[in-house]
## 1
Amino acid sequence: MTDSTIDTDLDEQWEDDWDDEDYVFVPEDRGIGRKFAYVGLVFVLIIVLVIGASGYWLMNQVNPSGGKGEQVTLVIPNDAGLATISRLLEEKDVVSNATIFRYYAKWKDISTVKAGEYDRLYVNDSMDDVITRLNQGPIPPKFSEVTFPEGLWLSETGVTALAAYPEMDPFEFAGVLTSPVR
């Protein structure tokens, strides 16, 4: 056998053994730049999704979905700062997150909040409505008139006052009546 016949035999054998189903397409390597571009694009998409989800969550904290709930009365004590007020609002379920409310109130440049009793606050209220209500100030204290006729003894004055204000503690009231004026 000659070399040409061996080559021909090998070519025929190669063509017989070749099957298109065993063929695998291997794409050419496009380079490292394209790989970095894909990784960068995925990274940017993840950042955009995280920022979008965070913004959506924050907007739901500031303006919660659903309507206002039941009306709540809040008593703000003397010397209460914005952190204490935020915590009290969260405990009454007026705002959903005290920390977010505190930062939002600072961003909205809330004026000082006066101590007192606040009504017209609602469960699940928007933070803008809560800030508006707090800026309006507390409800005025309730006054009622009690007439003390002249010539009553101190003990009779106490009975008249306690009849007008049944929620008053009689022992505390007696202590106030007998204490020296300062």
## 2
Amino acid sequence: MKNSDEWNEIKKEIDKQEKYLKFNKRDIFFMYVGENVGYEQNGKGKEFLRPVLVYKRFSDRYFLGIPLSSKEKNGTYFFSFTHKNKLQTALLNQIRVFDIKRAKYFFGKIGFDSFVKLENQFLNLFKVTPQKEGSNPLGQNNIRIIPQNDIKIVKYNQNYEKIWDEFVKTSKNGNIFHTRKFLSYHPKDRFEDKSILIYKKNKLIAIFPAIEFENKIISHRGSTYGGLVVGVKNRLNDSLEIWQKIIEYYDKTIEFRKCEYIFDNYPSREVEFSAKKLGFYEVNEELSTCLDLDFIKLSDRRKRAIKKCDNLKIVFDDIDYKEYHKILTKNLTKYNTNPTHSLEEMKTLKKLLPNNYFLVTIYKDNQMIAGIWLVLATNKTAHTFYIAQNYYFSEFQPLSCIVKKIIEYLKKKNYKYLNFGISTENGGKYLNKGLFEFKESFGGFGVSRFYFRRDV
């Protein structure tokens, strides 16, 4: 017997609610489905509840949802999957619009692979007329992947070192931090290497440097930047298919830090776009400062600072790493931390990549008082890895003259950008305004770098 009167009273209270739960595609909520008419699906119990899958989000208030059942059902109208170790059946023939007011509590998220299969079954079920190639029946935000069965993944080993580094050199978005030569400075037993190469029709089209740490795939814990590096002919559908293969291959939580766009050899934002379409999300955003070397505009304050140190001796490609590391370590002591690289590691990197790493220092009366460790990351972008000074000599503003010298050097080499690094701490939660203003005084502007994650 229908309990319509009881449901009507509950419905009146639900409609008065002014607080709304946040929701996204693939979320599952226990909803006040209610007492409905005829063959329409009802809720259960005194509150008329039933789990509902968010199939497509229309706004922050309502969505297209599919009611679920704990009973196994067969046929094209139903799709079964496992959720929280229990069987759930999506009632595809009961799909309808739900207001988020009906949600009582969050019940988890359907796995990505299960959702893709459900979506394919749903589209086949409700396909009324033949679709034109490339059309999208559910709107432009519902990205569908054109399968490429000729893509395969190969686990990295040392035999691929030369092939790997040559690919990075000619890639769309790779830089020195993606190369095996750079990564090889780490002791072999420091990380469990999980790097892969992606081939299509026996041609290398992408690489993914990665390690496994705490049951997660991270790209790369031993490098400033990581992420997927693709060839210059990479297109959106290639990125979608490559990420799909990577997700299936690892079957674990995946994290990567994407460098600022100024490090890309060519525009390549389809890589991050496709990652987000396949379940990756931004964990944090950090703010770096970049100098466009074609538009350097020093502040008056910075010009005055340069005059104070203009007669001091600057050494480009200094070899005294020991003294520099001592100054750097002392600088970081007040933050209760140490340099990322040991003295020996800095020397090793200089030996491995002599044309990419340069120690630029400044002296007063034969004493090193400041220095910047400069990295030529690509053919157009350089990066200041460490900036350190002896604060006893801060009145001379020594870092100002070093930056000036670096700018002059890079402009002669036809470089486009100098990246000053981040001015944020704790994953972007805290902005060091003083540091950012110092970098801005050289004409710098803010650029973001992002850390992405996809949960298994």
## 3
Amino acid sequence: MEYRHPDRFTMTKQHLALVSAIWVRWDDMGIGAPFVSYRDPYGPGLCASQVLHVVGENVDLQWREARADFHQVEPTARCQKRAQVLHKQVGTALQIVLATQSWEPGIYRRLDANGLQWERI
């Protein structure tokens, strides 16, 4: 399913913190291009924990039995849901920063169908 940017987006300091925490590397395939890992967009580690840490929210952890002899610590379902919402909004936040060359919180309006042009309102 293709992601479509919303018509309006409220950029918060949390979104800007996440955009600045994106771990960009160089991929040498073909002519080369900047690359963000789909597995570790904010560097190695649990994505939900990293998202909430970057935005300054507490991370509630729970033990999960991965196997009979192995337990794993992971964020609670509530924390994972909150992190997922913020993480999915980072694509729009990044596009706005690139399009407007602005790091200002506020309300932005999409000006084109592709989400390449935005203005702060």
## 4
Amino acid sequence: MALPLILDTDIGTDVDDALALAFALRNPGIDLRAVTTVSGDTRRRARLAAALLALAGRSDVEVPAGLAVDPPEGRAVEGGHEDDDLRLVEAAAGSAPAPSPRTAVEVLVGEAARGAAAGAPVTVAAVGMQTNVAAAVDADARFAGSLARLAAMGGAFPSGGFDPADEHNLSADAAGAVRALGAGAPLLVVPTDVTVRTYLLESHVDRLRRGDPMCRALAGLVDGWAPVLRRARPTPARRAGRRVARPADRRLSRGAGLRDGRAPAGACGGRGRPGDHDRGSGRRPGRRRRHRCGRRRLRGPLARRRHRLSAAARR
């Protein structure tokens, strides 16, 4: 039996939520019941989700706009490029249904009650702020107990190199996060120090470009997000993950041949000239340098042969 799921999302800023929506749509093990939006201009986010659903041929999925709260001082909930993303996807979709006239809280409470009554409780995947879930908990005391699970993306462990205070999803509405996560629903929490280690290669985005209309729209959203991420000034909490985030961003926009990133070993096919592994990295003299494929510089014919064999074994 497919998993009944409601996706509660701040889709439209970082591209990850659009990819999460596509995954939920294409996974045969998921029965997507609704998409609720949270944070900032929630109606604009709902329009983006509805357009992606139309591209996937799933306009039957209800998309209600949710709630937004003022974030703490100094914390932004939008990147400024959201209108561009919406225009891109709506142009690709041609026409898409308007967001649901119901509210996100109404849909969350109603679907949870319906699933519990049918013996198939729903899972809520909250991949943004917990504002909608907290409001649903406040609206119906039975809501948390009727869920199969509340899966939340947020938080960070100091041992992972992140300061939890600089994490976004839970910190942007800390009061809502406390109410939602403490309501008694079975929990699955995926923290930031896990999610930043999951990233795309340019080869992945190229496959999206060759796909159907929804996949091509996703590739366009990735292209729009990469320069925004590159311009973003990393907070102290994110610097520990910069080796993951920044090379991933460069691969999205420049291809997998990185000089200083984590491209797969042998990305150059093992055919790079020995000198290629020693120069051109742009780093200060005396520091260890890498070839554009991510391998350390080579010394001697034996090392170069090992590099070629390693590349061949990975094909």
